[in-house]
Each structure stands twice: as C-alpha cells, then as structure tokens.
Write a sequence for this structure.
C-alpha cells in the first residue's frame, strides 16, 4: 500500500435555506435594477421550430438569456435547446448560479407564483 495515499474528500458546503432564499431575492433584485429582467404574459410556439424561437429571442432583444417557465412546455424547451445562448428551465430548477450565468432573465407570468413560494412569500 501507499503510506500517505490520496483519500476521497467531499468538498461540498451546506448552505442554509434562509441564505439561499436571500441570495435568490438579491440576484432577482439585481437583475431588475440593471434592466435585464423581462416578464412575458405567455410564451407559446405553434410548433417545435428553432427558427421560431430565434425570432422570439431577436424580437425581445435578448442576448445570453435564461427563460423560466411556470411548468414544463416541451414545444418551447425543444425549440430552444439548440440555441447556445438560450437556456429554458421550469421554475422548480431556478437557482442563483444560472441567473448570474446568463445576462438576461425572462420570466413567463405562470412562474411568478412559484418564485414567490421559493422565496417564502405567499
């Protein structure tokens, strides 16, 4: 055997719920102040077409953007998956890292209640 061989380590750090909530509130407020937060009434596409999603992104004037949906929408998710500058996710997957990673944040109206629940507002 090896005298002082490598030992497996766990480098993960536990972050308290209150701290995670505060971070989410803080980053959403920051995006709003910077003018990089947009809220859409709805985001519906008639069919799965990447070209249509590119048009929507261009019409909204978005750069590298994160689109948050109220629930699963396979048409929008599949239309956007081949666009390198766009990420689509349901509100359950929303996290601080992804919000900071993308320049623009687009919220569909359905997801607002889910965000309120996540940050502790009813």
């Amino acid at each position: 055997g090896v005298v002082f061989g490598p030992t497996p380590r766990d480098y993960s750090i536990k972050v308290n719920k209150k701290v995670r909530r505060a971070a989410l509130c803080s980053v959403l407020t920051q995006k709003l102040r910077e003018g990089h937060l947009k809220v859409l009434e709805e985001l519906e596409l008639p069919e799965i077409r990447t070209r249509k999603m590119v048009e929507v992104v261009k019409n909204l004037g978005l750069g590298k953007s994160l689109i948050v949906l109220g629930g699963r929408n396979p048409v929008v998710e599949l239309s956007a998956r081949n666009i390198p500058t766009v990420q689509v996710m349901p509100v359950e997957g929303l996290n601080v890292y992804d919000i900071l990673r993308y320049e623009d944040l687009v919220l569909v109206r359905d997801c607002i209640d889910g965000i309120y629940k996540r940050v502790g507002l009813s």
